[in-house]
Amino acid sequence: MELDLLFIVWLFPIVFMLHEFEEIIFFKDWIIKNKTFLTEKYPKFSKRFFSQFDGLSTSAFTVAVAEEFVLLSVITIVSVLFETYLLWLGVFMGLFLHLFTHLIQFILLKRYIPAIYTTFISLIYCVFSLNYFIKNNLFQIKEILLWSVIGVTIVAVNLVFAHKLAFWFDRGNRHMN
Question: What are the E-state strand segments in 3-148?
Fold first, then answer.
């Protein structure tokens, strides 16, 4: 089977969700099991991290992931419909670079972290895809670099928004109960 750009583009939301499912399923229990270890090993980081994420419910975390998935899906659909892939490339590169944060966490902590298994799977997809783009001259190196910066910026800003959405969701649920 000859791979093509459309196959890679449509596969991206699937790879993204596969990666996120591991985080959704294991994040809360992992936090509970590793709180003491993290607090002792990284006290400054832990104070900030736990103040943000310790009380976050799995449902709220899932809301944040759902928002990211919807945005990624809209970007994918619009890119395919209009046959313009630079914004998609930027978001793709944002995820690609995000995967390296999980690798760094894994190396620093020297233990399982939620998302590390699917990080390896996702990295295979990303490396293969980037190689395909370059080998087939679909994107120039300058475009890849520029849209990587744009994509990381979009992903970072959206991540802040998604986390705020998760906290609003939890706050709304507490008021309803």
Answer: none
Phi-psi region of 103 (alpha: psi -120 to 50; beta: other; left: phi over 0): alpha
* HSE-CB for 78 with a 13 A CA cutoff: 11
Per-position b or e across 128-138, b if 16+ CB within 10 A of its CB: ebbeebeeeeb
Cβ proximity of 38 and 46 under 8 Å? yes
Alpha-carbon distance of 164 to 92, in angstroms, equals 23
- 93/114 Cα distance (integer angstroms): 21
pTM (predicted TM-score) = 0.91
Torsion of CA 119, 97, 17, 1, to 10 degrees: -80
For the segment 50-88, what is each residue's pLDDT rounded down to a tens digit?
A: 877 777 899 999 999 999 999 999 999 999 999 999 999
Nearest to 19 by CA among 111, 75, 94: 94
